[in-house]
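User: Structure tokens for this complex, please. No commentary.
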Amino acid sequence: MSNISIDEPRKKLLLMGNEAIARGALEAGVNFCTGYPGNPASEILGTLAKVAEKFEMYVEWSVNEIVALEAAGAATAAGLRALTAMKNLGANVCADFLMTVNLSGTKGGFVLVTGDDPLAHSTTTELDTRNYARLADIPLLEPATIQEAKDMTRYAFELSEELGLLCMLRTVTRLSHSRGVVTLGPIPSKKRLAEFSSQDLWTSGSSSITCMLHSVLHEKMKNVQTKFEESEFNQYVGKQDAEFLIVTSGTGWLYSLEAINLLRLQDDVGILKLGTTWPLPEKLLASYLKYTREVLFVEEIDPFLEQNVKMTAAELQAEGIGPIKFYGQKSNHVRGEFGAGTGEINVNTVVKALMEIRKIEYLPRRSEYSEKVQKIISSYTPPRSMSFCAGCPHRASFWGIKKAIKWYGQDVIVTGDIGCYSLGLLPTGFSVEKTLHCMGAGLGTANGFGNLKKFGLDKPVIAVSGDSTFYHACIPALINAKWNQANILYVVLDNNTTAMTGHQPHPGSGVNALGSPSPRISIEDICKSIGLEVRVQDPFDLEYAVQNIYQMLQTEGIKVLIFRHDCPLTEAQRREKKPVIYVDQDKCIGEKCGCVRFCNRVFKCPGITWDYTKGKAKIDELICTGCRLCADLCPEGAIKVEETV
Amino acid sequence: MSLREDPLNIIVTGVGGQGNILASLIIASTAVQDGVSVSVGETYGASQRGGAVMSHIRLFEKRQYGPLIPEGKAHIILGFEPVECLRTIGGFGNQGTKVIVNPRPIYSVDVLSGEAKYPSIDEVLNAIKELADNVYVVQAVKLALEAEDAILQNIVMIGCLIGSEFTPLKNETARGVIKEIFLSKSERYLAAFELGAKEIKKTKPL
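Assistant:
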């Protein structure tokens, strides 16, 4: 919504963290941008795509993260500036290329942005991708504010280009999805041309060449470290010779500042905020550690600073610095709701750590108020579990799978995958799915479950994935299943979009990142080319959907069933008016329903609510999308559809 | 403009699909145009609708603050859904917190399936009152329907916040932001905004 393309230096603009990163790339004159949608990083590329034509950039949603990084790498080898953005797990997908392009180097500036997700708001892991910067030995920047998100991105391009080395920027959910005021800088107007000829060589080599390039990488990193010692992104607050020091990065910076203000510790505690966290600015650290007796580390997910700063401190002992007592995750002082190194940190995390270490008292609220809260909240706040949206075709698909398994009469293993349909594990998906890991793991693990007959596990396997996931990670597993003759019914839930991350297009959408028409790559054609039986079915035609699953469970080998129906959220954007669904309350028999209030208790669509005064079902017109599925399912025929033209 | 409280902590709380994030964007943009700095934190988890959604909006002038309001430090809570409003005041409220709440419930699947009980609206409002300084109940959906679309209830609630004068944010600035965002469609949004701004002035606290 914010217009990030405004070319008015010094103007203040309210930006989301991801928009600020996109703006930083524009201010660096980025030419080539790639990525795969994944929260919390999705909006970076989405924002750049919207202004691609204006700034003559190339922006693509790639099929997956490794192709994204490779394509961007090539652009930088040809002298362009390129950015690749992805979620935490995406870093694993692109890791092979990352661990070689660090050696081959770049000509144009090359920035990899990874979005970590402490508390796993929308991911299946709390991976800390900062470890990749250390593993690949590349510079790491961690913005602490929205302004820094922009400024660091621009700087990362300059640093990368100067050194000829890929640079990594690590953001987290709480930065990517926050908003703050950013002072804009200028956008360069100079255009670049790509150059790469048969005279050029771009490789990480092998044998002695690899070792030589590895040594060059180490030299580059020494150079980076010298620059980081002077970086404006490292800041200190407090008296110079504070005996108690907080070392922090990223979101921990503003939380720590607020915590020491709440506890009135400003005069005693110093805070060193590091923005350049790999390689560490060791001399800068030494200049504060020499006064320090106690250090508290405040950072999100892994004890990355904690472990690396301790190594620096060990070396400094020979120079007479120390001994220092360290607090953080290892001492269990900095811990989230689920323990140290998990979940999100916040102001309270820092307050609690300081209270325990410094033995001080602090009550955020009067104790009688807190007691009242405890009493009231537990009695009057029912939980609000996640559920498929009203009108979601996945609800129909999982209902169909559940029903078909019941008909089949034997146990069936259902493996799940990453997307909105991950909720197939929960009651909203009738708890049909039994496994969930990473992109493509549904079909990958089905290759194992579907080949355990000789070990006595002879159960049919249904693997579920979405359409975007099909292109991203399922094709090799599909080929493997055919080649090694696994027994799998593979169900593709095709809603014609990458719904979970904000409706980005994919290779089957017929449009690219810019919304321009592009070749549509058919899921069924790919499956047929491997020699598989493929059926396509609208899951809202429930009877046929159930029959198809039931029939396909009877045969051996790998088969594909595509459940195809557009996501109701994209459908709603296209549609002028939705059909009106209503409950004929004379026909609804309420609690007497033989199916125990089937619509509420079993089907659980949030669009069907309950009229507590009359004891009958009713439709919540604010939520219902008019998908009609409940009208087909109501045992009494009490749910009706009023067509609107 | 000067803030009586610095930072001034506002929470918009409700359920996915109620336009919570757009509301926080309008409030924060208004603050920026009125010359105050802001930090906004949004918690929406997986993008599915129907889950709880909460936005923290922090207005400040002297120094910068992070996007999350600490425990018990909310000055104002704008509740789009009664139980979510209660849940939020439980975590972030204090005896001085002011609350504007839309009493229309949205039942969770846990409630509809019979696994959990939704309390009566009076019980919820009384519980909020127990934990707040003042509670203003505004039938935002009914007012939104007067502006022709129930979906405008979030804009009605913004009207209430600005009209309440609990913040120094100016009516004219908020109207300007709404015009910038909705362009040619902004008329009905402005109508919804004014309905909220007027309603709050005649609403007595519980």
